[in-house]
UniProtKB/TrEMBL annotation:
Pfam families: Cytochrom_C (PF00034). It comes from Dehalogenimonas formicexedens. This is Cytochrome c domain-containing protein. Residues 30-49 are annotated as: Disordered. The keyword Metal-binding applies. Keywords: Heme, Iron, Metal-binding, Signal. Coiled coil: none annotated. It comes from the Bacteria.
Amino acid sequence: MRITRKFVVCSVLVIISVLASTTLIACGGGTTSTTTTNPPTTTTAPPTTSPGAALYKASCAVCHGENRQGVTSGTTVIGPAVLVTSPTITKFTTEASLATFIAGHQTGKNLTADQNTQIAQFLKAP
Ligand code: HEC
């Protein structure tokens, strides 16, 4: 059989369509089973890169939980875990008043005024 140009073009098209359909089937099957849904993003997620966030994690998280939301109950080896967000945090109407509180509170006493301000900013941030 003489291999004509038309035959080659047709064969290539057939091969492409076969490959395309198998790929589609493979992809179709794959996407349904491997699709991952992103975890819901919370609007109150703390900015993890701010200096205040790092200070909070190092100095306050032991009693108040890993994130700004704190924990509502339970105890730690050091003392009771306390919620440090609203409504508690709203008691301190300004960052400055919160920073002043922190300066006299627990590990905050060991930090500088600037560091306490950074933590206050972090706790007050939306
Ligand atoms: C040793 C455990 C401990 C550490 C460390 C600690 N706290 Fe507290 N925190 C407490 C306890 C217990 C309370 C509740 C009693 C009180 O006000 O002292 C509290 C209360 C608070 C309150 C609420 C105060 C009020 O009057 O409503 C804020 C805000 C707060 N902490 C922030 C911080 C920050 C910021 C840090 C880090 C610099 C920190 N805490 C470190 C144990 C701790």
